[in-house]
Amino acid sequence: MADGIEFNIDELMKNLDLTEQKMNRGVNKVLKESAKPLKQEIESRTNRSDAVHKFNDGHAADDVVITNVKGGMSDEKHLQVGYQKTAWRMFFVEFGTFSMGNSKGIAPQHIVQRSIVVKKADVRRIQVEGLRRVLGT
After folding, report:
1. What is the mean pLDDT of residues 85-101?
2. Please, which contacts does 76-81 make with residues 24 or more away whose CB atoms are closer than 8 Å?
3. Which residues pair with 66 in a beta bridge?
4. Where are the domains of the chain?
């Protein structure tokens, strides 16, 4: 041992593991927190009708969800914000049906794309502030 310096390798490894767990939880929390403005924007841009849908999957505006954080060790962490049960229906609203050969088709509304453009700066700001909190800087 060097003069006056002692350390326990087991304790050091335990502390590093705890730090890694704390960082992972913090990053996951920041990602979830930063997705909320986008979710709210998509909900507000989604049209509501009085129609009762034959598939009984409800209004698309009530179906916007934030998934759990995915990825991790070898992949970038990410989550998804979008429609769940009504995704198949909202695909046609988002992208339209003109490309399917129907000249009287649905015009694309780009609800999700426009929401991303509008809220991108807010999401980025929340992520930067949250990561600074997690890192303690």
Report:
1. 81
2. 77/27, 77/28, 77/31, 78/31, 79/31, 79/32, 79/35, 81/35, 81/38, 81/39, 81/42
3. 81
4. 9-135
CA of 101: how far to CAs of 89, 105, 107, in Å?
A: 18, 8, 13
Q: pLDDT-derived band of residue 75, with 50, 70 and 90 as boundaries?
A: confident
* Distance (Å, whole) CA 95 – CA 9: 57
4 pLDDT tier (thresholds 50, 70, 90)? low
Residue that the structure tokens 């060790």 belong to = 73
Q: How many CB atoms lie within 10 A of CB 42?
A: 22
50: number of CA atoms within 13 Å, CB side? 0
Banded pLDDT at 59 (limits 50, 70, 90): confident
